[in-house]
Amino acid sequence: MSFSIRATLAAVLSVGAAASVEAATIFATGFESPGYSVGTLIGQNGWLQDIGTSSVATIQSTTVLGGSQALLVDPSGQPNFARAVKTSAYNPFAPGNDSTVSFRGSFLIGSTGIASEYRFTAFDGALQNIGAYQITSSSTAGILNGTGAAAISLDVWHDFEFRLDFEAATMSAYLDDNLVSSRAIGNGLTTFGAFAITTVPAGSGTRPLYVDDIEISSVAEIPEPATSALLAVGVLAAIRMRRS
């Protein structure tokens, strides 16, 4: 086997040793000062109130994952739906853009009070609902109306990811880096326009949700080791054909 062939195989196999994704940040925050100050989130850095009252989302410094501040989502006294919205437009099919969008961060559900439901909701460029990562009142996490869910622990920080693959028209939910739920993206929606943090207390929920270190990013898939192995087999097959 020549040096050039060895080099080609080494390059192919090295792809499999890399991480499974590369990301380009669309929006990210840890809700820290000086960008954010303690008090209502609405009006800070472009966050908007959709429905409910502005008390649904506040910056606080008591319960945090890292740094000195995090977001508190409080369902107390809210109507059936209340949410804070942040626009972050991205076209996954524009030239040079990646077709997958990832919404990730960390959350903690407090154990005090009456259980509530929460959602991390994605909207398209026309603000149509794409889908939502759902945290239910029975302490499970998954895709709203999707297949599968996973139990969460109260008073514990969990990592979440809501991944939208617009090329495959699928959405997936991850909890602590484990895939727990998925379903199709319907209605031919092909852009990302905004996201919202929503509480669905049904008029009685009081249990708090804390959110920290959120990031919206475009994701470029990198071949996994199995894919790289197939590429290597293809290289070897081409070599044999050339020799025969």
Structure explained in plain terms:
- The structure is a single chain.
- Helix content is 14%, strand content 42%.
- It is mainly β and 244 residues long.
- The strands form 2 sheets. Strands 1, 2, 4, 5, 7, 12, 13, 14 and 16 form a 9-stranded antiparallel beta sheet that branches. It has a 7-stranded antiparallel beta sheet with strand order 3-6-15-8-9-10-11, with no helix packed on it.
- It has 2 helices and 16 strands.
- It has 2 domains: 1-20 and 222-244, no CATH class; 28-221, Jelly Rolls, CATH 2.60.120.
- The model is unreliable at 1-20 and 226-244 (pLDDT under 50).
Task: Give the SSE map.
Layout: H1 3-17, E1 21-29, E2 39-40, E3 48-49, E4 57-60, E5 70-73, E6 82-90, E7 100-109, E8 117-123, E9 129-135, E10 140-143, E11 150-151, E12 158-165, E13 170-175, E14 178-184, E15 192-200, E16 209-221, H2 225-243
Antiparallel strand pairs: 1-16, 2-4, 3-6, 4-5, 5-16, 6-15, 7-12, 7-16, 8-9, 8-15, 9-10, 10-11, 12-13, 13-14
